[in-house]
């Protein structure tokens, strides 16, 4: 993770906010994320504005269209373009969704892969080929989905673990997607989270969603993050340690200040987790039996 120079809290970069950010990036923001499909062919002023960010901040490429689990042949020409784009802008990480979005043409949606052993081998081979072409590891994001395949013979957690192990790739942990799926498919989100391979997490996502009914959530990234998702993030840090985490917002985009407030919430949770970790470590290293006797740790001493 250190080799990626990725740390702290991030924000998805949107063109609406480029000029305000270039006038002064608020201190809670440590890195940005882009969908490379939106930036591959930029020219002129837009390309110059984008380069302003890549020259000053770590940027992650979070893909939308590779269709890593789809039936079409892997788009190796597209991956070569991604490789050149990442080299040009010194982008060190590429991530994709554990889903598919094409079948003889793009479907403009992220669709679930059947949770089967055959699919594990198929997807893992495609991830390994992607890593060979890019000449670096990639991270796979746990995806939201709304209908389970009738041919699945594994549960979602087992499928994710098997793909990551066989592909030998990283995990891009989307905490909101866990919550969304837990409501839509009726499972315990905390139990699911704790079953993931934490040692593979390279960074995380939080986002908001649409409540379409008492037991149906749409993963829209169109609203503020809700308390149960923030709590899942706290649990993730408690279980796996603090990892870089980014706020997604893809529609109903508010003024930058509102998004910065949510990014600052990530920072606050990260700092509180680090404080608790340091306190536990200090307590274990002393002979005192009362945690209250430990000196308080100033949050300002912690740079997330």
Features:
single chain, 304 residues, alpha/beta, TIM Barrel, 8-stranded parallel barrel, two-stranded antiparallel ribbon, globular, disordered C terminus
Question: Brief overview, please?
Answer:
Helix content is about 40%, strand content about 15%. The protein is an alpha/beta fold and about 300 residues long. It has one domain: Divalent-metal-dependent TIM barrel enzymes (TIM Barrel, Alpha-Beta Barrel), CATH 3.20.20.
Report on the structure:
This protein is of the alpha/beta class and 304 residues long. It has one domain (2-301): Divalent-metal-dependent TIM barrel enzymes (TIM Barrel, Alpha-Beta Barrel). 40% of the residues lie in helices and 16% in strands. It contains 9 helices and 12 strands. It has helices at 18-23, 44-54, 76-89, 117-134, 156-167, 175-185, 189-194, 227-240, 256-284, and strands spanning 9-12, 31-34, 59-62, 94-97, 100-102, 106-111, 139-141, 170-174, 201-206, 210-213, 216-218, 245-247. Strands 1-2-3-4-7-8-9-12 form an 8-stranded parallel beta barrel. Strands 5-6 form a two-stranded antiparallel sheet. A two-stranded antiparallel sheet has the order 10-11. Helix 5 links the parallel strand 7 and strand 8. Helix 4 (117-134) packs parallel to helix 5 and helix 8 (227-240) runs parallel beside helix 9. Residues 287-304 have low confidence and may be disordered.
Topology:
Blueprint lengths: L8 E4 L5 H6 L7 E4 L9 H11 L4 E4 L13 H14 L4 E4 L2 E3 L3 E6 L5 H18 L4 E3 L14 H12 L2 E5 H11 L3 H6 L6 E6 L3 E4 L2 E3 L8 H14 L4 E3 L8 H29 L20
Parallel strand pairs: 1-2, 1-12, 2-3, 3-4, 4-7, 7-8, 8-9, 9-12
Antiparallel strand pairs: 5-6, 10-11
Helix pairs in contact: 4-5, 8-9
């Amino acid at each position: 993770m250190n080799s990626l120079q990725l740390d702290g809290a991030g924000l998805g970069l949107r063109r609406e906010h480029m000029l305000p950010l270039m006038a002064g990036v608020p201190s809670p923001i440590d890195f940005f994320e882009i969908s490379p499909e939106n930036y591959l062919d930029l020219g002129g002023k837009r390309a110059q504005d984008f380069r302003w960010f890549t020259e000053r901040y770590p940027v992650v490429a979070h893909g939308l269209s590779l269709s890593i689990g789809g039936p079409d042949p892997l788009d190796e020409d597209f991956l070569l373009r991604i490789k050149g784009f990442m080299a040009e802008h010194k982008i060190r990480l590429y991530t994709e969704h554990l889903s598919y979005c094409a079948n003889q043409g793009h479907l403009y949606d992220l669709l679930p892969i059947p949770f089967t052993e055959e699919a594990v081998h198929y997807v893992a081979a495609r991830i390994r080929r992607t890593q060979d072409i890019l000449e670096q590891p990639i991270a796979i994001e746990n995806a939201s989905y709304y209908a389970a395949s009738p041919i699945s013979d594994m549960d979602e957690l087992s499928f994710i673990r098997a793909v990551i192990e066989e592909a030998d790739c990283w995990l891009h942990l989307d905490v909101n997607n866990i919550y969304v799926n837990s409501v839509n498919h009726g499972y315990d989100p905390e139990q699911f989270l704790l079953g993931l391979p934490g040692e593979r997490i390279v960074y995380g996502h939080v986002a908001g969603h649409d409540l379409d009914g008492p037991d149906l959530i749409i993963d829209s990234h169109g609203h503020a993050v809700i308390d149960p998702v923030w709590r899942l993030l706290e649990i993730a840090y408690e279980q796996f340690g603090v990892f870089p985490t980014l706020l997604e917002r893809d529609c109903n985009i508010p003024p930058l200040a509102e998004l910065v407030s949510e990014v600052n919430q990530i920072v606050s949770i990260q700092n509180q987790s680090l404080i608790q970790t340091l306190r536990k470590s200090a307590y274990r290293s002393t002979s005192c039996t009362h945690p209250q006797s430990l000196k308080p740790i100033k949050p300002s001493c912690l740079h997330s």
